[in-house]
Write a structure and sequence with these properties.
The structure is a single chain. The chain has about 190 residues and is of the alpha+beta class. It folds into 3 domains: about 60 residues, Nucleic acid-binding proteins (OB fold (Dihydrolipoamide Acetyltransferase, E2P), Beta Barrel), CATH 2.40.50; about 80 residues, DNA polymerase, domain 1 (Orthogonal Bundle), CATH 1.10.150.20; about 40 residues, no CATH class. The chain is built from 10 helices and 7 strands. Helix 8 crosses helix 9 and helix 8 packs across helix 10.
Length: about 190
């Protein structure tokens, strides 16, 4: 998995950027939020998330880790793929999205093209426990799903054939009890919950 790409921005469109990294041109899909922070010809760093499909390997790039973490949360929601997540983050800033989810504001989520009532409600249900609002300040509480311990445990349990919603529920409980445990211990404990 790639963490970031740093190179000269040789092409910039609203939906993708081409980065020249030591003579190799990387096509990176971007959000409008990231696009607004880039200037063609400059040396930039994009934090990336790679999606591997049967027919393609696609890189999604973000100006900062915060937006990438929100993207990763979105694609964990049943029915929301990377293209839809990119549209969401092109319409709403990460902080606007977090606030909308934390306050269960379906109306704001429905302003995104392609997001209806059911998708908005599903996002709120699946992500509300992963974020929090403390005294009016937006607080990232993505530790549950953006940290390596959670992701590695999730992947291991998915490979064993368990459903993602059941795994997420078990991991929430286990990681509250054992936040500093090893992946092996978390998986063993989560198996008892499943």
């Amino acid at each position: 998995m790639y963490e970031y790409l740093r190179g000269q921005l040789t092409e910039l469109t609203p939906t993708y950027a081409v980065l020249d990294v030591q003579g190799v041109g990387w096509n990176v899909q971007i959000t409008l939020n990231t696009n607004s922070l880039l200037k063609q010809g400059e040396t930039v760093q994009l934090f990336v998330h790679q999606i591997v499909r049967d027919d393609a390997h696609v890189l999604y790039g973000f100006a900062d880790k915060h937006e990438r973490n929100v993207f990763r949360q979105l694609i964990s929601v049943n029915g929301i793929g990377p293209s839809t997540a990119r549209v969401i983050l092109s319409t709403l800033s990460p902080d606007e999205l977090i606030t909308a989810i934390a306050t269960a504001n379906v109306g704001v989520l429905k302003t995104v093209k392609g997001i209806g009532q059911k998708s908005a409600e599903r996002m709120i249900i699946e992500l509300k426990d992963k974020i929090g609002v403390v005294s009016g300040d937006i607080v990232e509480n993505f530790a549950l799903s953006s940290n390596t311990l959670h992701n590695d445990s999730l992947q291991a349990l998915l490979m064993l054939g368990f459903s993602k919603p059941a795994i997420e529920k078990a991991l929430r409980k286990v990681l509250k009890e054992m936040p500093d445990a090893s992946v092996e211990k978390v998986v063993k404990r989560a198996l008892k919950e499943l």
